[in-house]
Each structure stands twice: as C-alpha cells, then as structure tokens.
Design a protein that fits this description.
The complex is a heterodimer. By secondary structure, chain A is an alpha/beta fold. Chain A has 8 helices and 7 strands, in the order βαβαβαβαβαβαααβ. Chain B is an all-alpha fold. The chains are: A alpha/beta, B mainly alpha. At the A-B interface, loops of A face α3 and α4 of B.
C-alpha cells in the first residue's frame, strides 16, 4: 500500500517578499489555515505588522533584502528558534522590469537576475540544507510568471529569471527524490502589474483573449499555493499556470 | 562623452526615417504616429546616437511612452546625454 502521507503538510512556512501584494495574501491565508509563517521583505509594511499583532507566536517578520545572503540565512535561523524548523518555502520576492532589452543597462540586468534567480536559489539551497539535515520532508513553491512561457515586450530579463526558476523547479523535484515537493505557480498579469508594464491596448487585448474575461487576481493564486503547501497531492515538479487560459 | 547637438540628433532621426522611405518633418510638433516613427525606430535612433557618443543610453520604458512628438524625441535624447 502506498504511503499517502509521504510528504506531510508544511507546518512552518517561510515566505519571501511577504509584505505586500501576492506575498502578503499568501501569508494571510496560511495564517488563517493555522500554519506558522515567517515573512520577510525589504520593508515590513503596516499590513504585515498588523498580522503579527493579530497572530502572536504564529507569525515572525523581518526586514531583510533577499539579495543579502548573510541576512536571509540569519533570518532563517531566527525563524527556526522562534517558530521551529522550516518545512515550507515560498519564493515570492522579485523585482519587475519595464525596459526594452537594448536599453537595459548591464548593471540593471545583473540586479534583476540576482534578485529573481540567484537569490531564491541561494535561499532555497540554505533552507533545503537545514531541512534535510534535520531529516524533514517539505514543500517548496516558486512564484514565477506566465512571462516565462509567453513573450511580452519590456520583460526580457524578468522573463529569463522566471523561466530559470521554472527549470530549476523541475530539476529540484527530480533531485530531491520526492522528499520535498517542488512546484511553481505562474500567474498571468495582475491588473496592477499590467498597467505598469504593458500599455492599455495590450491590456485590453489580453482581457479579450482570456476565456474567463478578467486579469489574474492574487486571491485566485493563493488557493493554489495553499494546496501545494498543505494538501495531500502527488503534484511535483510542475508549473501551474493561473491566468484564466489567456495564454493557451 | 561627446554629446550630440539637437540638430545632430535631428539629422540621425531623419536618417532613421529616410531608411524606411519616410521624411522627417521640419516641425518639432509633428505627431510621431502620423509620420510612422515607432518605438523600435526610437531604439534605432538611440543606438545610432550611442555609436556617435561612444556611451550607452539606458532608460526605462515609461519615459519612452510619454513621447508623442518629434520634439519629445529630441528632448528625451538630449536629456539622456546630459543625465
């Protein structure tokens, strides 16, 4: 008989970039589900602070830049001391882009890659080392983007980093032998991002081409993240696109 | 870095359009859509300017979206050079 509880639901989840937007929505949902959560971001927002007050002992927050490896690693140890061993990780922190490739400086390219690809891989490596050393099983969810699969102007480096994380997701799922379930969620454009990165014409075109008739909302992504962290599934090494079928 | 004058930038802009069989109007108030100067044409112009001045001109897209007239293009490139 197969062991249906091979990878148990996460009990302590670390969320990077958890102070606003999708990250904050994920933190809020996990707390409501009874999970212990650690969240960091460059700036701890009032919303995140309010959650810490509402969930004492269940939420640990910190002001940490994801590109500062020493600081993120110190935060991980702090979380372990405060909440217990981490057995769930959501790589959500990322920077966007709004510049044509030919006019994006080499320094800006490097910064996007460092924040969106190198830093999450380093954080994942550190969390996995701690997890495996303690004999724990766990779950990882990488927040990527439909940009990893479809082309959009002004997002070349950003798309490359998200595609890189999707590729890493598949290899990690293989490498970790089922001891850790590793998946990506790839949202379509959120309304707020869309207005900044794409013009109104392209926005209207995407909405017209979306069978569900609207842009993606963070609240539509959160249940999928929760499922990947908490539900008993055999989903592993997958990229789950959440865009109302706009991209098919 | 050797900066180009507004007139030199205008000459390069004219060359970009001429290569497509189009003509750059003398009026700085001319609408870019009407003369068929698109965002990639702007990139081509910026790269031609880079070749002349020997330095990269990098910028975010939002600034580019504000450009609507010939004069806006010349202003934008001038500002980039002096930034």
């Amino acid at each position: 008989m197969s062991d249906l509880t091979a990878v148990p639901p996460s009990s302590v989840v670390l969320v990077s970039g958890g102070s606003r937007g999708l990250g904050l929505a994920i933190v809020t949902e996990l707390l409501a589900s009874g999970v212990k959560v650690a969240a960091f971001a460059r700036t701890v927002t009032a919303e995140l602070t309010a959650l810490a007050t509402k969930y004492p002992g269940q939420l640990h927050v910190g002001s940490v830049d994801v590109t500062d490896a020493n600081a993120t690693q110190a935060f991980v140890k702090e979380v372990e001391a405060e909440l217990g061993p981490i057995d769930g990780l959501v790589n959500n922190a990322a920077v966007g882009q709004d510049s044509l490739h030919v006019h994006t400086s080499a320094e800006q390219l490097a910064a996007i890659i460092e924040t969106n690809l190198t830093s999450p891989l380093l954080l994942t490596r550190f969390v996995l080392r701690r997890m495996l050393a303690k004999g724990l099983k766990g779950r990882i969810v990488n927040v990527t983007s439909i940009c990893a699969q479809r082309g959009y102007p002004g997002l070349v480096a950003y798309s490359a980093t998200k595609g890189g994380m999707d590729a890493a997701t598949r290899s990690m799922a293989r490498e970790l032998g089922g001891r850790v379930l590793v998946n990506s969620v790839a949202p379509g454009f959120f309304a707020s991002e869309m207005s900044a990165v794409l013009g109104q014409t392209q926005l209207d075109q995407i909405v017209r081409r979306t069978p569900t008739g609207h842009l993606t909302e963070p609240e539509e992504v959160v249940p999928v993240v929760r499922m990947l962290l908490l539900e008993n599934t055999n989903v592993n090494g997958q990229v789950l696109v959440i865009d109302g079928a706009a991209s098919i | 870095m050797a900066e180009l004058t507004r007139e030199q930038i205008r000459d390069l802009m004219g060359a970009v359009l001429e290569a497509q069989g189009k003509t750059l109007p003398a009026d700085d108030g001319a609408d870019l859509r009407e003369i068929g100067f698109r965002s990639l044409d702007f990139s081509e112009l910026a790269l031609r300017v880079e070749d002349e001045i020997g330095d990269e001109l990098n910028f975010d897209a939002p600034g580019l979206r504000q450009i609507a007239k010939v004069g806006d293009v010349l202003d934008f490139i001038e500002q980039l050079q002096s930034a």
